[in-house]
Amino acid sequence: MMTRYCDWEIIKDGFSFSKDAYNTLGNLIIHENEWCDSVGGRFRAPVRPIEDYIQYINKNQIQSADVYMRDLSFLKECPSLTRLSLHYPVGFAEKMDYTPLYDLPVIEELNCPPTIDTESEEYCEIDYSKIHGLVSLSLYMRKGMKNFKNIPTLKSLWASKFKGKNRDLTDLFTAPHLDCLWLICCGVKSLKGIEASSDIEEVRLDYCRSLEDISALESAKTTLRNLRIDACGKIKDFSVLERLENLEVLVLQGNNSIPNLNFLKKLPNLQYFSITMNVEDGDLTPCLNIPFMGYVRNRRHYNLKNEDFPSHGGYRQKIRCPESELWRKWSYIREPEFYWEIYNRKAQDI
Hints:
Order of helices and strands: EEEEEHEEEEEEEEEEEEEEEHH
Number of helices: 3
Radius of gyration: 22 Å
Distance between the termini: 32 Å
Helix content: under 10%
Strand order of the largest sheet: 2-3-4-6-7-8-10-12-13-14-15-16-18-20
Structural class: mainly beta
Shape: globular
Largest sheet: 14 strands, mixed
């Protein structure tokens, strides 16, 4: 096996940390062997006894960790750890035992990704009703997962491969204060059920190739501020967009067609807009009133081109939550340029 060192790792105090945007310090990496992936990636920091990790976590009150361990029982000795990403260690092919999670007083964030080569068939036995205090959940749908629908404390939900009995969101969540929803490669046909939350602020829809109906977004018309749709080719009716009166960020990517951009005139708070979908009437002049334009795919019948918009980039999204909650906000995680000032401060911690 050809060896290469992990390129998303930062070393501090002899321990591995993940690398966040602008090379800032991310999660502590707890690993039982030297390999970070199955194709030769190796951690730079040495393998340590689990007691070393426990001591370091408790001394420094570490809150978040990427865990590459088959035995999770040590977590009960690390009460400050509340944000966990649990990975299969390289070479471990047995069923992971997640029951130690049930004994922890609080887990704010949980991410249990599958192994790459067995994602669709993998069995993952987790009863989410036994996990306390979940605020942010990354859900890779697999057999064995139970009771993820009824997590009342949930505020951020990332879901992959979810379909549901009704091909909508009614079986996905009932959290009344969910504000961030991201669907990737889900088999839903409509967004019915999103009205379960009265606080929806951010919605991302990526590669949901069965999705046809987004009209349920109207239930979030007063709260939704950030909407991104990418590669959801079956959506034909975008009329709901003109009713999302408080949108600040709108990104429409894909090969869909939209009759025109007149709906932009009804979005007084829109600050950032990007579109690669086809605008049938070719009139892009409504975009001239948008303070910041992202990428626009050039097409022959358009009356304006991408280079005609001088306001590319530069947008700083408003922060409406305490800075202590930004760790679970997708706009913060995926668009760090909106928050470079905060990341600049974090860089001083290394």
